[in-house]
Amino acid sequence: MASTYTPLGIELQATGENAGTWGTKTNTNLQIIEQIAGGFTQQALTSGGTVTLSVSDGSTGAVMSHRIIEFTGSLSGNAVVTIPLDTQNFYLLRNSSSGAYTVQFKYASGSGSSVTFSATDKGDKLVVAKGDDGTNPNIVEISLATAGTVTETGTQTLTNKTLTSPKIGTSILDTNGAELFKLTATSSAVNEITYNNAATGNKPTFTASGDDTNIGVSIQPKGSGTVTIDALTFPAADGSSGQILQTDGSGNLSFTTASSGISMGKAIAAAIVFG
Predict the structure, then answer these.
(1) pLDDT single digits (tens) 226-265
(2) Does any domain span residue 95?
(3) What is the pTM of this model?
(4) Distance CA 115, CA 138 (A)
(5) Does residue 16 sit in the same domain as residue 94?
(6) Which of 6, 96, 158, 186 is deepest in the core (most CB within 10 A)?
């Protein structure tokens, strides 16, 4: 009886076979097992095409008989990598290809599930080729994150976490993903705004702070917009010298020239004379 082979290429020798070469074949089998257990290899991808992985019975070096496979190559189209239907194994896949195109890892045929790196995903995936159906086997991804683990790209909600001096890029978003607060970094900045909350009966405050002795605070509207503080809307531009602010009774302030009526001194004198 001749040798048979496993789906990953390990030779199963028949009784009494391979006299004089049994040891060499056994050593090769052990090397294949070592590859399967923890071997690393690379696979160049075909732009817009399919790379078909296969075993090399009784020989080392088959890409699909390695535990870790790194996909490489410069893509100009979506790529597909296939494995035979009878493969049962788990793989750690890394997508190091360049180009904004997807990379799909699937069985050679059938309608079973597959795993796909998105066009922007240049990361790692732990996948299981289940070989659970002779016609439509499935490949599934196993999440590398456990409960409570924060991932780099996942959308997650953090609760009761303390962030000490976190670096925030350019904006803070609201729960809908829209910009809530934009940040602009200043090279060699030494001054900043400090926000203080308050206990019962006291007011929260925004305070200028930093290295300088005297620090002002600037609030700048956009375009012809205005600034409203405590329901009072201030003018969008400065007035003339000597003008004063007046309200229209509806919370809108404007600059106006002070009335030229009776002076304060005359008013006091009149009050004395006429009681």
Answers:
(1) 999 889 999 988 999 989 999 999 999 999 998 765 555 5
(2) yes
(3) 0.56
(4) 9
(5) yes
(6) 6
